[in-house]
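Hi there, hope your week has been kind to you so far. No rush at all, and the record is pasted right below.
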Amino acid sequence: MSFDERLHNIIKQYEELERKVSDPGSLSGQDFARMSKEYSDRSLVIGTVREYLNARADLESLREMLEDPEMKDTAAEEIIATEKKIPELEYAIKIALLPKDEADEKNAILEVRAGTGGEEAALFAATLFRMYQRYSESKGWKFEVLDISDTGIGGYKEASATITGRNVFARLKFESGVHRVQRVPATESSGRVHTSAATVAVLPEAEEVDVHIDEKDLRIDVFRSSGPGGQSVNTTDSAVRITHIPTGTVVSMQDEKSQHKNRAKAMKVLRSRIYETRRAKIDAERSAARKGQVGTGDRSERIRTYNFPQGRVSDHRINLTLYRIDEIINGGELDDIIEPLIAEDQAQKLSEGE
C-alpha cells in the first residue's frame, strides 16, 4: 500500500468514526468512550493529511498549467512553494502516525536521589527537584510532593512527587538517569570545583487496572517517622514500608502523619515502579537491535552535566550544549532540552520504520 493510499484509508476510517460518534445511541457507553477518544486522537492529524493530499493534487494541476504560456510563470512559482511544503507535511504526518507509547498520556511519579558527592550531591538533588517543580508549574501541571528526606541544611537525600497533567510522562520520560553537577560548593573555602551527582527517575503513574497487586504478596512494616539525623518528628508509628515479595521492590513513605495516607502513597509508588519495570523489559526486548537510543530509562546512565562555572548544560545523548544554565535550572527553558530529545527519538523511530 502506497503512502497516499494509506492516507485515503485514514480519512475513510475517520469519517466512519465521525458517523458513529455523532449517533451515540447506537453504541454502548464503553464503545462510545473508546471511539470518542480515537476520534479525538485522529482529529489531530486529519487536517494535515487533507492538506497534504490537496497539495499533491494541486501540484499535478500546476504542472499542467506550465503548458499555458500566460500561466507559466505563476505556475512555476507555485510549484516551487508546493514542492517545498509537501515533504514538510509528509514528515509531520509520519511523526503523528508513529506508534504511541501507551504510557505517554499518563501522569508521572518523579523520584530524585542524591548520588556521589555527600552534602553537595544532596543540595544538587534539591536543586533538580525544584527545577522540575517550577517546570511543572510553567506547564500548568499539578506538582504534589509525596515524600522528602532532607539533610537539615537544604539538601535532599531523596524526594518524590506526583505530577498530574496532559502528556506529563511523554515530556519527562527522557529525564531518567544520572545528572552530574560541577560547581564550587557553598561550604568550599578554597574555591575548588567539585563534581557530584543525583539520580532522577520518572515513572508513569500506574492505575490499578495497569498493575494488579495481590495483598498476600506484600509485607507491610510500620515505624516511627524520623527527621534529619534520626530526630523523631512524631510519636506514632505512622511511617510505612511496603515490600513486594515477588519482585523485591521496597517503598517507604513517612511524609504524612497518617499511617493510612502513607500506605496509600506508598502503594501508588509501588504500583508505578512495578509497571515501569515491566515496560522497561518489553522495551528492551523490542529494542535489542536498536542503536543510539535517546534514553533507556536506566538510572545508572549519565545523561546530563550542569557546569556552573561555565554556565553550561550538556546533554550527552544528543551532544547538545546550552549556555543558559540559570534559565534551565529555573525551569523556564527546560523545553530547550526536552524538545530536541523528543525530536531525536521520533527521528530514530522513523528511520527504524523505513
